[in-house]
Automatic annotation (TrEMBL):
It comes from the Eukaryota. This is RNA helicase. Belongs to the DEAD box helicase family. A motif (Q motif) lies at residues 26-54. The chain holds residues 235 to 473 of 667 of the full protein. Residues 26-54 form the DEAD-box RNA helicase Q domain. Residues 57-232 form the Helicase ATP-binding domain.
């Protein structure tokens, strides 16, 4: 049974826009090839995808850009995180051959960045390694972990820019970039840092944005950095 509180559309529709992939109603529909992920979801005791997940997963697994607009507590973290793991899996080489981080998740605050990091670390998936970079954290330790090799970077924009400028983090290998709570990041004045970072990432990347609201500034960011994104609104907080 589909949740009819989801609305999906193309933000900047063109003649070339493809149809939007259909929402999935069961975890198995999205992750049938990924038993480790299904096991972890079962462990968590979840019954079915939340509305945002049901639409986000098919879109993201087909490699498209996505804007997810939904209130806090609607399951946005796993909406972008599980496809990120699968995205990395497709490119995963033995650790000694890995050529740098593939996934970047930017979040407005250290608390949010740490929450995302905690969620990633529940999915001990094929040796995928994550680091969390935030102001006030031990900079030397963060640099050490990055230097040893990571697949996912979760970061606040200020600390990330600082480490990029100092030459400790290289963004060239990234192919999947998430701006989590984009509206809050703009409210906090992170637009220059976000623009610097996004400008440095290969434009053929997959780009994801989440936001609770859809103000002009967020639309501008989407226009600058996304490729025919699918926009998903969730009208209710029901999981
Ligand atoms: P958001 O980022 O939208 O604020 P979160 O991703 O932090 O929301 O998720 C909120 C809570 O819902 C978390 O505790 C998470 O574990 C839980 N959750 C995520 N997906 C599901 C699901 N499909 N069913 C039930 N609970 C879920
Ligand atoms: Mg969130």
């Amino acid at each position: 049974e589909l949740n009819n509180n989801i609305v999906a559309d193309r933000t900047f529709k063109t003649e070339q826009s493809k149809p939007i992939p259909k929402p999935c109603v069961k975890f198995e529909h999205a992750f049938h090839n990924f038993p480790e992920i299904l096991d972890e979801i079962k462990q968590a005791g979840f019954e079915k995808p939340s509305p945002i997940q049901s639409q986000a997963w098919p879109v993201l697994l087909s490699g498209e850009d996505l804007i997810g607009i939904a209130q806090t507590g609607t399951g946005k973290t796993l909406a972008f995180l599980l496809p990120a793991l699968i995205h990395i899996d497709g490119q995963l080489k033995p650790r000694e051959e890995r050529d740098g981080p593939k996934v970047l998740v930017m979040a407005p605050t250290r608390e949010l960045a740490l929450q995302i990091d905690k969620e990633v670390k529940k999915y001990h998936y094929k040796g995928i390694k994550a680091v969390c970079l935030y102001g006030g954290g031990n900079r030397r330790e963060q640099v050490k972990v990055v230097t040893e090799g990571v697949d996912i970077i979760i970061a606040t924009p200020g600390r990330l820019n600082d480490l990029v400028a100092a030459g400790h983090v290289n963004l060239e290998s990234l192919t999947y970039a998430v701006l989590d709570e984009a509206d809050r990041m703009l409210d906090m004045g992170f637009e220059p840092q976000i623009r610097k970072i996004m400008y440095s990432i290969n434009p053929s990347r997959q780009t994801i944005m989440t936001s609770a609201t859809w103000p002009h500034g967020v639309r501008k960011l989407a226009e600058s950095y996304m490729e025919d994104p699918v926009q998903v609104y969730v009208g209710s907080l029901d999981l």
